[in-house]
Write a structure and sequence with these properties.
heterodimer; A: 366 residues; mainly alpha; 2 strands; 65% helix; B: 209 residues; alpha+beta; Alpha-Beta Plaits; three-stranded antiparallel sheet; two-stranded antiparallel ribbon; 6 helices; 11% strand
Chain lengths: 366, 209
Amino acid sequence: MDAIDLLIVVARVVVVFALLLVVTLLNVWLERKIVADMQNRIGPDRAGPFGILQTLADGMKLFFKEQVTPRKVELGVYLMAPFLAVIPALLTFMVVPWGRPIEIAGRVVPLQGTDLNIGLLFILAMSSVAVYAVVMAGWSSGSKYPLLGGVRATAQAISYEAAMGLSMVAVVMFTATAGDGGTLSLAEIVARQQGSWGDALGIPALGWVPRWNLFPELVAFGIFLIAAIAETNRAPFDLVEAEQELVGGFHTEYSGIRFAMFFLAEYINIFTMSAIAVTLFLGGWNGPTWEGTVPAVISAILPTVWFLLKTYVIIFVFFWIRATLPRLRYDQLMQLGWKRLIPGAFVWLILSTVVIGIRQFGWPWT
Amino acid sequence: MGVMSELWKGLRVTGRIGLRSLFGRGIVTTEYPHEFRTKPQRFHGRHVLNRYPDGMEKCIGCELCAGACPAQCIFVRGADNPPDDPTSPGERFGFVYEINMLRCIFCGLCVEACPTEAITMTHLFEMSVTSREDAIYTKNELLMRPDGSVPHPRPDDPYADMSELEVADGWLRATAPAGSAAYEGVTMWQGTPGPASWDPEPDQETRDA
């Protein structure tokens, strides 16, 4: 490890940081545009071409706005909560590989913040920490609506974290059969989704089907997607900040840049969750690169393009669902979490364990 | 899987509308300062004080509008016409005429109450002000010019629709004449402020004959 390696590490982190901020600017605009289209409206179109700079303008406005601190807040916790929301949101994406490792002057640079060998556990840990921000913001505001939002966040996080974790376990177990032993490293999980199912199963007719975990783990993917929407507090699971009932939920008493940080965290989380879904189920950055037929630069960039493309498909589904579904009632939220998703995830986990076991070790009675 | 099919049903609706809007069809939003919606003929906008074709003011300072106003937003004080240089035909004219647009509810009762059709309404509706004093419209702002045109409050505004002041609400004239069935189907109002351009109403004997 020399100075250049250190520089590369810094560069990777800075690039991920910048990517998240730029993507957030884009996503807020994109969501507003898409939802507007689905509601027969025009959406933001004043700032920049097609209004693409709207988020920038909003962000600048929030930056210069007065930060009102209500009299009854617990000041320390109140000031800490926005940071506690943003930092885990930024950290979670650090373990997601967003492109194929590239080779520059003999050094292999993985396009990833860092390749943790416990990547998935890190993601689960960070998304749990992010809930603390909501709870702390709700509690420290000293006002009833944020408190209700915070309480809801706790219950919602517990309900859906479990289902999400279980659907991830199914993927981890499946991935273990695809290579040499089990792994929690996201880079490794992506690497094991290379190729096609035709080659993996020895069926030439399936040669065009990419070897994504999506196909064998379809149910887990569905459960993960629902849990991801709930984890990011998006409609129809946005009870935490339900405008109509709770004014703004946990961030009611926040204004200016402090509110902007919660907002930023929410949109980073959407992007991160979509990226994780792509990494676990849709083969990450895998895709045709046409090695040799196109310039090397293009085939080095193409994996990143594929990754972003897949991520944006998932993000679009997020927005689409937001534009379509009304908010769940609180008991419906709990029922869906505890009576459908968690048992469903368990059943699927057992089923896929049995199938994997049979494939690996043969039928138990022969 | 009933849930899934219901979900898909909903997603299809938003998807279809989203796709349609993407090609610019079916969007109901109008880009307001650039394009105006067409207002109905009887739209109740800002008031205007009319003149006769010869340039005389129609207002006679009778304060019936102020009396009819449910919001009490009109303040009128009449004064005697100077005999050698009358402002209006008749004994008196509206010396002070003020309407507080913050209180006005645009009901049009003043228009109905006016015996001389001196006050009518236009289609101008953009009346935002930066101070409360500015919201009180004085006679200078309300009165039309001797040539029949109405001074626009923001003549340099590139987004203002200057034609709004040239259109009068025709509500009074359509309903006023005694509510008689004899006037059914007869248009007794005109689209522009200013002097009436129709024949005088027939008297009762002629009408009932």
